[in-house]
From TrEMBL:
UniProt superkingdom: Bacteria
Keywords attached to this entry: Coiled coil, Hydrolase
PANTHER family named among the record's database cross-references: MUREIN HYDROLASE ACTIVATOR ENVC, PEPTIDASE-RELATED
Protein name per Swiss-Prot or TrEMBL: Septal ring factor EnvC, activator of murein hydrolases AmiA and AmiB
Originating species: Marinobacter mobilis
Chain coiled-coil ranges: 53-129, 186-262
Amino acid sequence: MRFIAHTITPGISAGLRQRFPGGSRTILPFVLTALLLLANPALAGNDVSPQQIRELKEQIAEIDDWLKDAEEERSDLEQTLVQTEQQISRATRERRELRQQITEQRTRLSELTNQQAELTATLNRQRDSLRQQIRAAWMAGDTPAIKVLLNEVDPENVSRTMTYYEYLSQDTVQRLEAFQTSLRALQETRQQVSATQLRLSKLEQDVAQRQQTLESSKAERERTLTALRSDIRGRQNQRETLEADRVRLEKLLQEVEAAIANIPTPNESQPFRSLRSKLPWPSQGSVARNYGESLAQGRLQQNGILLTTNNDAEVKAVHYGRVVFANWLRGFGLLTIVDHGDGFMSLYGHSSSLLTSPGDWVTAGQTIAIAGQTGGTDRPSVYFEIRHNGAPQNPNRWLARR
């Protein structure tokens, strides 16, 4: 709820002092309502001066409570973020250690691979040697030693020949045993190589997954903390705005009361209260939003009707009266307020041009403005309200059927 300075000076303060040097103060309740409550329709119908200030203070207090809770939540999030960063630090250190282990395991794997190659070469040599020895034995026949014994006459030659064959047999056995040993060593080395490769792969997966989990956790907490900080800044700005509104409101009340202290009541032969269901419509167009409809997700209610019309459509006064406000007001754009006496007022908002000034007398059906899109509407519109002693009235009960 922001008030622009020229809504009260000179449009009200100077203009009203010049036009109305004397009279009663019967217009004060509505002007306060028009200037103050229209900027925040949720306050419509309340006691203007103290009630709005109290509500502003309550809003400020609510924001203060929210900020206190949010600061505690932010502190918790920041502490959690610190813990996460410490965990990431430890994980990074563990990852370095694991990488060192991986390097060592890869070195071991390289050694095992070389050993496997050497064992394979040794095994191949042993296989070739055995193959040659077996072939030579086969070529000599199945029982070369018996043949030699039968053919030898000299005992010394027999003894020497048997010793030779004994050595040859032992060498064959040793070669076979060495071959089997090499074969077992090769199989074990292959198993170690496979196990080492599997262990390296799992280590790398574990390290990568742990790091990714921690990084994701950190990113999520940072997003939450960023959103909370942004929300806190927004609430702080809202609080500052409300505090400024409260100060501006108190000053505005003093200035408006001083400016309209002696405004006369309009004198019309046919009182406004007798025209229920007889007032002319303020402009051509269809009703886009009706009285009492929910606004702001149900927190507020529509205090008037919104007509959609064409550009340059005329906006007309519904009854005789005096213009008490013709200026811009946040949320309503260019706004005209007409006092009809006996506490009745009519309001005409979203105009593109105002054709009257504060203090002008107008008659029923007189064009007082041109329809437009000021005050935040997305198409040409006319906002129309009726108030009695500051309380919003249902315009449908006052306007004639059409």
